[in-house]
Amino acid sequence: MNLKNKNIVITGGADGIGNALAKRFLNESPNSVHLIDINPNVIQVAELMGINGYVVDVSDPDNLKLTLNNIINQFDKIDLFCSNAGIQEFGTLSTTDEAWHKTWQVNVMSHIYAARVLIPHMVDNKDGYFLITVSAAGLLNMPGAMSYATTKHAALGLAENLSIMYGGKGVKVSVLCPQLVETDMVTSTGVLDENHPLMRDGLLSPNQVADDTVRGLNKEDFLILPHPQVLQYIQGKAHDYDGWLANIRKLVKK
Ligand SMILES: NC(=O)c1ccc[n+]([C@@H]2O[C@H](COP(=O)([O-])OP(=O)(O)OC[C@H]3O[C@@H](n4cnc5c(N)ncnc54)[C@H](O)[C@@H]3O)[C@@H](O)[C@H]2O)c1
Asked: Whole-prediction pTM value?
C-alpha cells in the first residue's frame, strides 16, 4: 500500500514503536493520522505532531468502536489500521489469572474488537489494511514471559485467519514481528544486558522498525521482520521442531 492520501489509525501511538510509525508515516503525505492510547499524554503528543489524539483503552470494546466510528464518520474511511498497543508480563506458572486476563485483553481481544468494526468497513470499501504488531515472540516464543508469548502467538493466529478469510475481499493483513526494540517496554524492565541472547541480533531503534514497516506495507508482505535473522529461525523451527525446542531449553539453562 502506498500511504499517500491515506487515513491511518495507530494504537499505542503515544510512545515507542507506535509513535515512531506515526512520525515515519507523516513523510509519506497521508491524508490524516490518528493516535489512540490509554495514556492521556497522547493528546499533547498528537497535538505537537499536528495530528489527532484520542485517549482510549483498546481493551474497552465500546469506547474503541465509538472512536473508530467517529473517525470513519469524520474522515470517510480508515485505510490503514495499526493495532500496535501491547503489554508485556513476565512470569511463568506463577502468572496470576488477573495478569493473564489483562494481557489477553490487550494483546489479543483489542485486535478482535477493532477487526469487528474495521474488517466489514474495509470489505465494503474493497480496500484496507490491518497491521498487527505481534512480536518475534509470537513466532519463536519467549521463555520467562509465558502470557506475553502465548498471547502473541494468538495474535499471529488471528492475523493469519483474517488474511485467509478477508484477503480475497480487498483486505490486506500484515504482522510486524521484531525482536528487541529500544522502547520503554524493554528499557524499563532492566532485564537486558549485553549477555542477553537476543542482544546478538541487535536492539533496534523504533525509527528503524518504522522504516522497515513502511517497506513491508509498500510490498504488502504478510510477515514484516525488522530483524532478518527471525526468518532463518522460523525456518529452522519448522524444519526440526524438537531440535528447536532443545536449543531453546539449552539457552534458558545458560
Ligand atoms: N519493544 C520491543 O522490543 C518489542 C518487540 C516486539 C514487539 N513489540 C510490540 O510492539 C508494540 C508496541 O510496544 P512498544 O515496544 O512500543 O512499547 P511501549 O510501552 O513503548 O508502547 C506501548 C504503547 O501502548 C500503550 N498502551 C498500553 N496498553 C494500552 C491500552 N490498553 N490501550 C491503549 N494503549 C495502550 C502505552 O500507553 C504505550 O504508549 C507492543 O504490541 C509490543 O508487544 C515490542
From this structure: 0.98
Query: How many CB atoms sit inside 10 A of residue 154's CB?
Result: 19
C-alpha cell at position 89 = 508480563
Please tell me the distance between residue 249's alpha carbon and the centre of ligand 1 in angstroms: 27
The set of protein residues with a Cβ atom below 6 angstroms from ligand 1 is 11-12, 14-18, 37-39, 57-59, 84-87, 106, 133, 135, 178, 180-181, 183-186
**pLDDT tens track for 159-216:** 999 999 999 999 999 999 999 999 999 988 776 777 788 888 999 999 999 999 999 9
**Long-range Cβ contact pairs of 99-108 (< 8 A, separation 24 or more):** 99/147, 100/147, 102/59, 103/147, 103/148, 103/151, 104/147, 104/151, 104/154, 105/59, 106/58, 106/59, 107/148, 107/151, 107/152, 107/154, 107/155, 108/151, 108/154, 108/155, 108/158
Beta bridge partners of 7: 32
In the chain, the amino acid numbered 212 is D
